[in-house]
Each structure stands twice: as C-alpha cells, then as structure tokens.
Amino acid sequence: MDFYLDTAQLEEVRAAAAWGVLRGVTTNPSHMARAGVRESEMRGHIQELCWIADVPISVEVVALDADGMVAQGLDFATWSPHVVVKLPTTVEGLKAMARLSRSEVMASCQGCAHVTDCPIRARFAQQQRLTRRPEINATLIFTVNQALLALAAGASYVSPFVGRLDAVGEDGVALVADLAQTLRVQQQPGKIIAAALRHPVHVTAVARAGAHIATMAYTILTQLIEHPLTTAGLEAFLQDYRRSQEER
Ligand SMILES: O=C[C@H](O)COP(=O)(O)O
User: Which of the ends of the chain has fewer CB neighbours closer than 10 A, N or C?
Assistant: First the structure.
C-alpha cells in the first residue's frame, strides 16, 4: 500500500518527503483554505508541492457544473505532469470525468518557478509524453456503486471517506473491503485511495481491506512510526554501547 499525505501544507509535505515513503499528496478546498492559499495563488502553491515531493498531487475543482469542472480540470492539468484532477462523485462530476478523461492537455508547467532544471519536467519530456490525458481522482465516495460509476466514467482513483462513514454509524473500512473485492471480481482497473482516515488503526485496517493507497494527515503518519518500546529499546541499546566504550 502506498502512503499519501492529505494536506496542502508545504512544511508537512517537505518533512514527509524526506522520509522516503511519500508516494502522493491529496488536497481539497478545505486544506487550501487552512494553508491560507487564495485562488490566485493555487497554481504556484501546487507547483511548489510538486517540486518538493515529486509525486502525484490531487487538486480539487470547486465548480459544481460539468462545464465549470472541465474548464478547471483542464487548467489544473497544465500546471504539472503530477497534477491529478479531483472531482466530486455527483452526476455533474461523472459528466466532467467522462469528458476530462478523454481530453488531451499539454503539461506546460506554465508559470512554475522551478521550470528550468526541473527533474519532473525533464523526465516527462524524455518519455515523450508532452501531451497526456488528465488523471482523475473521484472524491466524496460513500458507496461501491458511486466508485463503479466513477471508474466507468474514466476515473483512475476512487476515494472512499472512511472516517466520515464511521462518524455517521456506518463502517468505512467495510466499504473499502467491499470495494476492493468488487474490483478484483470485476477485474476492474483503478486504485482505491482510502481517505478521511482518523488514526493509525484505520491505516492498518484499510491496508488489510485492500486499499492501494492510504491518504492521511501528517499527524497520523508520524503516529505510525512511533512506539514507546522502540524509543525505550533504542535508548537501552545506546546506554549499553556507551557503557561498553567507557569500560575499555
Ligand atoms: O479530501 C479528502 C479527505 O481525506 C477528507 O478528509 P476529512 O474528512 O479529514 O476532511
């Protein structure tokens, strides 16, 4: 399972990228608002995230109608080859997914401060993939049927919101398991991004359930690596080592 960060905070992405385990970032309008990013600053902010992490970055539209979503998605997709367009799983969202997934865009990286000497852009050019079909992350998924429709419309990723289902008395991990099993039976390509995770137990549970990706807050990622016995064990090893050096 791949680990993604669910944030728009540059420092959190920088810290997680340094661990060597970060495979993607998911943002949404709430994350952008919390990071203090205005609409006019979005492109620069997303390009900075791409530069820091060199991984796929989901960027969510705010339009509610298909025409508006397509226009925003086409714009986002030109910001970097790493941009994945995030669309809500509604009727208008499905229409936009179908249109966007069949369109072609130039990933020009226009306006990026790092456009010269950028490894992402160089790699992309080397692969002679100067035009591409935008990848789509279908968000706000709460049922298997919503996910199947999004995949049929052309989404590459589907994002079930685990913690939000738990919060209303349903079982978010069971949805992930059901969805993973359904995709296996149907031999349906598409990746499950388990989202809205609330704690480390969710992360283990969605991995067992078959999620391809878990996206989480930076605080949850840090919780995954910490254990008091690891800290105490390391301290004991170092004490023994120092003592053995003093005895010589
Ligand atoms: O946009 C996707 C997020 O994973 C939603 O998470 P949230 O419920 O913590 O806002």
Answer: C
